[in-house]
Amino acid sequence: MASLRQIYVTTGIVIGIIILGLIALTSWYTVDESDQAVILTFGKAEETITEPGLKFKLPWPIQSVEKVSKETYSLQFGFGENSNEEDAKMITGDENIVYADLVVQYKIADPIKYLFNAENPREILYDATSASLRSIIGSSQIDDALTDGKAEIEAEVWDLLTRLVDSYDIGVSIQAVKLQDVELPNDEVQKAFTKVTDARETMQTKLNEAEKYKNQMINEAEGEVEAIISRAAGEKAARIEEARGNVAVFNSLLTEYQKSPEVTRDRLVIETLERVLPNAQIYIMNDDSGTLTYLPLNPVQQAQPPVNTSEEENKEGENNE
């Protein structure tokens, strides 16, 4: 009996040690900064742990932990090792076939929904991406898909894909959508479209140059207008000042005239004659005396040309003969 009891005690101690070891090993877990954890109680999701550090839970099999990453995932559509070329093949709104490559960046926003609302959420996201891209490409023109309409297509794909993912409720948040490339299936068609694109770029360059020249001419014209206005304002101010000076002179003369009308009148006449005939000699005479006035003629005689002496002598000799 003693040996049997000892066996039971030993077995109990071993089982207790195993249980304690199991509790110690399965009751503590670590959450990294780049991870988030979901606590499962008998297989049912209870809560989400997002704070990093050493955490405690009830031992297995009561509670268990599922971890998912907080990082941004990339889903490649239309190219890559596991991609099918037919997935990238689609038709545009004007019935042209193109190959489109797309990258979707997403995060796991709700770990519980991501783990338990769908068996394969990444496959669901891939199918939703395919449906969204085909829908938008199918309503777009080939020119928009190949040239400057890519940004608008990306925005529309992001909006449609976000609404689809939200309706599927798989716990995924779409961060960005990048349309990598859109190509034509035929080389000849590709070359022809490249020529069309080059011609459009040349046209846009010419339009930009014309707009630049237009702006330059407008700026020069505006500058010339400002210069003319400035000169006109200066001339206006000069004429106003000149007029004010003339008015001041006239007022001064008026004052003098009111004091001595005759003297002022005579002075104005004399000043006017001096200004009109600057080189003339002016004589002021009083004819009330009734006498004959003698005017010096020296200036007039001096103004006459001199007579040639030899010619006069010849004329005198002829007369004597």
Description:
The chain has 321 residues and is an alpha+beta fold. Among the domains are: 2-68, no CATH class; 73-185, Tetrahydropterin Synthase, Chain A. It contains 9 helices and 9 strands. The strands form 3 sheets. Strands 6, 7, 8 and 9 form a 4-stranded antiparallel β-sheet that branches. Strands 3-2-5 form a 3-stranded antiparallel β-sheet, with no helix packed on it. A two-stranded antiparallel sheet has the order 1-4. The chain is elongated. The termini are far apart. The model has no long low-confidence stretch (mean pLDDT 80). Its main location: membrane. HflC and HflK may interact to form a multimeric complex. It is found in: Membrane.
Task: Give a short synopsis of this structure.
The chain is of the alpha+beta class.
Low-confidence stretches: none
Multimer state: single chain
Described by the principal axes of the CA atoms, the overall outline is elongated
Please report the total strand number as a whole number.
Answer: 9
The helicity comes to: 55-70%
The fraction of residues assigned to DSSP E strands is 15-25%
Over all CA atoms, what is the radius of gyration? 56 Å
Class inferred from helices and paired strands:
alpha+beta
Number of DSSP helices? 9
CATH class of one domain: Alpha Beta
- Overall mean confidence score, pLDDT: 80
**CATH structural architecture of one domain:** 2-Layer Sandwich
Protein name: Protein HflK
Function: HflC and HflK could encode or regulate a protease.
GO molecular function: peptidase activity
Pfam families: Band_7
